């Protein structure tokens, strides 16, 4: 099975010029803590609620600071045509729960989460991945 078969396609996206307050408000309203950041359809990074706090607020950034100032660049990605195991292995080895999904041309087409994968793969593999992702650094 391929990542495109389980990924979320209806994905909220932040833009580099968005303010931290605006994106944090969207995160609160939607009850999520991760958002890909794209310039047009090109992924340039990702922003988490932790990025906002640790890179933004902790360094003195105000609510009108731009996403571009605190985003995580070089976000790990998977391709829509990759096998599910590719995402599980990457999530396990890097201890991450969500990955942006790009097409063959590098355009953002979705996000895959551990939850998406756990519904489609053998319980053992999802359990192992969750254990690795959740272990203390």
Automatic annotation (TrEMBL):
Pfam families: CBS (PF00571). InterPro entries: CBS_dom (IPR000644), CBS_dom_sf (IPR046342), Diverse_CBS-Domain (IPR051257). The keyword DNA damage does not apply. The keyword Acetylation does not apply. Keywords: CBS domain. Residues 7-64, 71-130 form the CBS domain. This is Inosine-5-monophosphate dehydrogenase. It comes from Brevundimonas naejangsanensis.
């Amino acid at each position: 099975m391929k990542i495109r078969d389980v990924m979320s396609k209806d994905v909220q996206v932040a833009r580099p010029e968005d303010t931290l307050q605006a994106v944090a408000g969207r995160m609160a309203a939607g009850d999520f803590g991760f958002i890909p950041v794209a310039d047009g359809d090109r992924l340039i990074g990702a922003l988490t609620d932790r990025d906002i706090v640790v890179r933004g607020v902790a360094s003195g950034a105000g609510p009108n600071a731009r996403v571009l100032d605190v985003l995580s660049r070089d976000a790990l990605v998977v391709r829509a045509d990759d096998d599910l195991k590719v995402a599980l292995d990457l999530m396990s080895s890097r201890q991450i729960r969500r990955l942006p999904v790009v097409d063959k041309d590098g355009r953002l087409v979705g996000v895959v989460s551990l939850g998406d994968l756990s519904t489609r793969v053998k319980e053992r593999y999802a359990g192992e991945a969750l254990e690795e992702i959740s272990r203390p650094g």
